[in-house]
Amino acid sequence: MSNEQKQLIEFAIQDLIAAIVAHEGKSPEDAMDEVYHSAFFTKLIDPESGLYRESGEYLYNCIRSK
To answer: Which domain range does residue 37 map to?
Structure first.
């Protein structure tokens, strides 16, 4: 995994957490806990999935469709 991919993955995680906070009014800490302990997180951090290239809103819809 390249440094660029790692950085984009981190940005995607931050965007997803921000979307959860915005849509659901959860605290950032609760949103982080949810994201980092979800099955979706494993897919998000896999560079082969390409999910890190998607918007926070798209990722939010993905995690909520599970």
So the answer is: 3-64
Q: What is the pLDDT of residues 9-21, one digit of tens each?
A: 999 999 999 999 9
Contact 59, 51 (CB under 8 A): yes
Question: What's the pTM value of the predicted model, to 2 decimals?
Answer: 0.90
> What would the two tokens of residue 1 be?
């995994």
The answer to whether the CB of 4 falls within 8 A of the CB of 50 is no
Domain count, the chain: 1
On whether the CB atoms of residues 46 and 13 are closer than 8 A, the answer is no
Helix (H, G, I), strand (E, B) or coil at 46: coil
CB 26 within 8 A of CB 35: no
